[in-house]
Design brief:
six-stranded antiparallel β-sheet; alpha+beta; Rossmann fold; 22 strands; Calcium-transporting ATPase, cytoplasmic transduction domain A; 639 residues; elongated; seven-stranded mixed β-sheet; Calcium-transporting ATPase, cytoplasmic domain N
Length: 639
Amino acid sequence: MKKITLSQRFWLTLLFSMPLIIQMLTMPLGWHYPGEKWVAFIATTVIMLLSARPYWSSAWAAFKHHRANMNTLVAVSTTVTYFYSLFALLTNRPEYFESAALVTLFVLLGDYLSERMSNHANDAVKKLMSLQAATAEVLRDGRFQILPLEEVVVGDRVRVEAGAKVPVDGKILTGTTEIDESLVTGESMPVPKKPGDTVIGATMNTTGLIEVQVTQTGKDTALAQIGEMMRKAQTSHAPIESLVDRVANIFVPAVLILALLTFAVWYVIIGVNITQAMLFGVSVIVIACPCALGLATPTALMVGMGRSARSGVLIKNGEILEKATKLQQIAFDKTGTLTKGKPVVTDVAGDRKQVLTVAAAVEQNISHPLAAAVRQAAEKEQIDVPSAINSKVIAGKGTAAEVAGHTYQVGNQRLISNQQNAEKWIKQATAWQQAGKTVSYVLKDREIIGVLAFKDLPKNHASRALNDLQKQGLTTAMISGDSEAAAETIAKQLGITQVIANVLPAKKVAAVKDLQAKGSTAFVGDGINDAPALAQADVGIAMGNGTDIAISSSDIVLTSGDLLGVPRAIALARKIFKRIKLNLFWAFIYNLLGIPIAAGVFAGLGLVLSPELAALAMAFSSVSVVTSALLLNYSKLKV
């Protein structure tokens, strides 16, 4: 017989719970139909046999190891409630089949949502590997041939044209270019490359034609190693024993022992008849039956996560809530997380209008990020950009074109290597570079006429978000693949004192581990290069406008991409966990108050709690827990 999946168990339980839910909703109105008790019995029996069996198995396994857990609570609560309700049905007493069915339904819902999140996270590595090129142009038999990437071996010579994705990890043999490595390293600007420099598979060759010798293939590539780091980081977290499990380990055995003692005292010592002694024992189990405990966590999670989603915060699982209450520090990626991830023109040396006009004309058909920034600056200043002809890329240096009869060039320092009287321009450019900016020189007929400075600016609300986190008692840090100058500039602007720059994905994971050695750490990122660090951190927070890989590797997703969502996410997670603990209190208070009465301690005063009243009190505790969870919808945040 084919095993029933968790998804099938959940939907089956939901289907068979519908008659019971309808009965609960119509009971206050006095509506009944013939045989409704037997319908409840049959529906609950199906649920107990097909849906609750795994919880019995888990409870039995825990019992054999002298432990109790959440599944023990589910098994005890549903089993006792079911058999008491069956006894009540046969003796014409009030029965409570719906309690057993709905506890199973709620717990299954939590497991079902958790499984879906887990499957989504496991897809992250597959998505990552799909980013690499499927083919490569390889030199074989004296000519370049397009071959599947699986056929490329170490030592092969691969040709990569401008605008193409680098298919392999390797070393440049011929050609100069600039490589956009932001996908892997987080570096916000394309990196100049020349013969002897290394390139990484899945990055983008932006300007020149290069030939590369393959140095790594398969599982040894940088992309594959990032995937492996993600797998290790995701599986390295030791599962945190939940608060309910810790309580269950003490509470469940105590209640069972107390029920047996109650029966023994009344039957053996006091000498009442066996039926009356059994009623006292059953009343203890029923009043203590932890149905509300089974509801305490999933109801607060469902309501709280729904509230969080409406606030732009997606919390993927309940374990994160407890971790969020223990956070001591939070680290941020720079590019695309704290900053906008796109360079803008910040300074112009020379005749501003002339420099922007000709630079925009030369760069009007170039896809380079700096070219886009120049065009954006010209458009912002409403400059009429003239047409350019004979546009071409100067490999590893920049671009050139003819505008109004003159030859103009825009590019990096290699472009001016043979220039005379360039000292004043170089001095200005150097000052900007030391401030963490990127520069481009503008030449007219091979003579420098200006310099452009570019910078990636902080996102809106970045400073406020960091201040809000500090008010919550968290220290902040920056971990970036960008240069030290660029990272330090942004950090100083935002008030971050701890900066770790020039780090590749593997070192980002190591940096997070170093922070974790000092205390519980969250990491906020948006790129593929952030995925291993997001998985490694105690709490990984991904920007919703980031890559699918980062989102899949995280614990919390900020759907709006607004940095104010970070302090809001922490505050929400803490509030939901606090409500779960409050729910556990309500789940216990009726037990603690009712157990002495159910055990017959006050029988001499005429105060006796029958199994029917005990079951009613048990149900009332469940209602209190659900009501407490629903109040999360109306709670206010200080962030």
